[in-house]
Amino acid sequence: MIKLIHWVPLLPLLGFLVNGLGRRFLSRSAVSLVGCGSVLGSFIISLLVFLEVKAPGFSPSPVDLFPFIKTGTLDIPFSFLVDQLSSLFLLIITGVGFLIHLYSTAYMHEEEGPHYARYFAYLNLFVFSMLLLVLGSNFVIMFIGWEGVGLCSYLLIGYWFKVGEYTDAAKKAFIMNRVGDLGFLLAIFWMLGQFGSVGYAEVFSHAPETSTGVLTGITLLLFVGATGKSAQIPLYTWLPDAMAGPTPVSALIHAATMVTAGIYMIARANILYTLAPVSQNVVAIVGLLTALLAATIALKQNDIKKVLAYSTVSQLGYMFLGLGVGAYTGAVFHVMTHAFFKALLFLGAGSVIHAMHHEQDIRNMGGLKSKLPITHITFLLGCLAIAGIPPFSGFFSKDEILSAALAKSPIYYILGVAGALMTAFYMFRLYAMTFQG
């Protein structure tokens, strides 16, 4: 199955080309079929790959596709790395991504034919870029995917480009991401100078004999890149504004793709961070501060999508806290649980906004429990999961991060629990004002 791995990103890319080039000729049902079918195909292959990776006796090795950059002593192949971490992310991106594509077929029904096809083309390109990001076996391929998701977020946030404030939000997301990407680029050049390579295997094998100062510099620059993509202090303000795009786009950006890129990058480079304790502490402190700041902002928001946006920033802070205290597994586990309950909450919010004829202020809602019984149940389940109520998934992933935080420092633990309590409060405030009362 590993031999088929190139089809995982290729199918969404083909979907993008077919829908993008044929947007004036294809019928709506053809567009939906190509858009959803390509991601479903990727999911099925990802599932087969995951089962192969899970089998005993599997050892990860790069899958070389073609030579990419070859000059003098520098050789950067275009190759994929299939291992436990990338195969898990493949399932999250294609699985949750497919469900969001499927939901979009009904949500975007008011769009005219060419615009409907344009929407699905962008969505497919987004999934392709994210798959490239997690599959690359070196930092350059990761960076190509990294830039791709930045471009797609700009296209999708500003999808309704005739509204001035939406295009402003798209530009803001694009520019703030560029700031972070500069840090990532500098780190790549520093790695090239230091190790003569950007392949994960080469960089990580030479890391133990490198001075701590150099590793600290490289990891802090990588973290600057992660703060841009994963919306940490001070580069977090683009994410709440990203609500300008259609609701399924918010679900895709916040749940399955884009914002988890920074978490993936640090989890992938965990060897470098473990050898640079200063950087680890910076990651933990910035993550914790972001989690608390975003939670306090979410307490006072009245726009249903803004509450969910700040809650995403807060949960990402939690994941960075996990990475910073060395709970890499716990952080990736929280990425996975968060992908599902956050997608559920955003799609539930989309259902509410549709039912309320595009009203987003929760002060103008209430008593929707009887009108939207299915949305009410699913939204409640999402709230229970994000609040960390056992036996829902959020409880287990938050517990893992908090226990690692306690082992590192009681202060991390106390502040982490305070953030979790605020999460429960603002989510149930949102639930009560929308569905009860």
Helix/strand/pairing class, anyone? Answer: mainly alpha
- The rounded distance between the terminal residues' Cα atoms is 53 Å
Unreliable segments of 5+ consecutive residues: none
Gyration radius (Cα, Å) is 21 Å
Please work out how many helical segments DSSP would assign. 18
Number of strands: 2
Percentage of residues in strands? under 5%
Mean of pLDDT? 85
Could you give the order of the helices and strands? HHEEHHHHHHHHHHHHHHHH
Q: Fraction of residues in helices?
A: over 70%
CA-based shape? globular
Spatial arrangement of strands, main beta sheet: 1-2
Biggest beta sheet summary: 2 strands, antiparallel
Provide a compact summary of the structure.
The chain is mainly alpha-helical and 437 residues long. It has helices at 7-21, 28-54, 84-107, 113-135, 139-157, 164-195, 200-206, 212-229, 238-241, 247-256, 261-268, 270-274, 277-298, 304-324, 328-355, 373-386, 393-408, 410-435; strands at 62-71, 74-81.
